Amino acid sequence: MISKRYKALPKETKKLKHDKIENLLRTIKKNCTAKFDESIDVNFQLNLKQKKSEINIRSVLNLPVGKSKKIKVAVICEEGKLEEGNKSGADVVGSEELINNISSGKINFEKLIATPKMMAKLGKLGKILGPKGLMPNPKLGTVTNDIIKTVKDIKSGQVEVKNDKDGNVSLSIGKKSFSDDNLIKNFNAVLDTIIKEKPDGVKGNFIKSSFITSTMGVSYKVNLMKNI
């Protein structure tokens, strides 16, 4: 059944003229009529399907203003770094025992950090962690000896920028309760990261379109002013 709240939202928003994010945020927030602090989400449709091959992007970004979402972080490290792991603020810290727990299907975290020495032992967990996007990756900074800094970055608003099989990048840039200025800072940081990640082999415009919405709202097309 469609709720009265949803019926009251504007229809056919894709037919509306695209606008700058500064103007759209006022409309998006006006549509945030749910009883909780809705997330403000963005989507970028990228030109990644080339004739000869399909290209992917994957990177991480520390948002200028944290997302205010608590991320449960786990750390797998050698015995000599367990004390550092416990001081880092991670929610789960362990060594061989944690590996065994994951192997048996006990996964109670959203991000996994591992030290380089432990990566060889994590190889057997690839079929478990890989499909869930939890396998530590040096490019994403989740294979590291600097446990304290990495945990802090993840918990303070680090996001992963990656495309799905259709070339879409979707992520949250904050909450309705964030000021417009802070949401714009986060949006621009994501946009700049995507532009910098443009593969050399891509021909034509890299970003085909961008949309913004809230958790329970409808989406609006963003007028991207930057050269993409």
Instruction: State the separation between the terminal residues, measured CA to CA.
Output: 41 Å
Largest sheet: 4 strands, antiparallel
- Principal-axis shape: globular
**Portion in beta strands:** 15-25%
Q: Secondary structure elements and their pairing?
A:
Elements: H1 4-7, H2 21-31, E1 39-46, E2 58-62, E3 73-76, H3 82-87, E4 92-94, H4 96-103, E5 111-114, H5 119-122, H6 126-129, H7 147-155, E6 158-162, E7 168-175, H8 180-196, E8 207-214, E9 220-221
Parallel strand pairs: 3-4, 3-5
Antiparallel strand pairs: 1-7, 1-8, 2-6, 8-9
Helix pairs in contact: 2-8
Provide key terms for this protein.
228 residues, alpha/beta, 21% strand, globular, single chain, 8 helices, 9 strands, 28% helix, 4-stranded antiparallel beta sheet, 3-stranded parallel beta sheet
